[in-house]
Structures are given as C-alpha cells and as structure tokens.
Design a protein that fits this description.
Blueprint: H1 3-34, E1 40-43, E2 46-49
Antiparallel strand pairs: 1-2
C-alpha cells in the first residue's frame, strides 16, 4: 500500500469517525428531547417549563 493510499484511507476513516460521533450525539439529543419529563422543574427560586416554547419563557 502506497503512502498516498494510506493517507486517503486515514482521511476517510477520520471523516467516518467524525460522522459517526456526530450522528450518535444527534441521536442521543433527540432521544433525550423525546423523553417525557416533568412539566416544570424548580431549582431554588427559578422554575423552568420543559414543555413550553421559547416565547412562553418570556
């Protein structure tokens, strides 16, 4: 295997690894977002609704 072929194989494998990491992170975020959660979580004096939209937070 030539040096050029090894270089391209390394670039391809690093791109595949980065894509896989991005894909699994996006999948985990989506799974977390879809989990049913409590309507409101309160920490000390701040209560943040998890089911509302951003405009409802104003």
């Amino acid at each position: 295997m030539s040096i050029k072929a090894r270089k391209y194989l390394m670039i391809l494998s690093l791109c595949a690894l980065a894509g896989a990491l991005y894909g699994t992170a996006a999948y985990r975020v989506e799974q977390t977002r879809m989990q049913p959660s409590f309507a409101i979580s309160c920490h000390q004096t701040q209560c943040v609704p998890h089911t509302g939209s951003f405009s409802a937070l104003r």
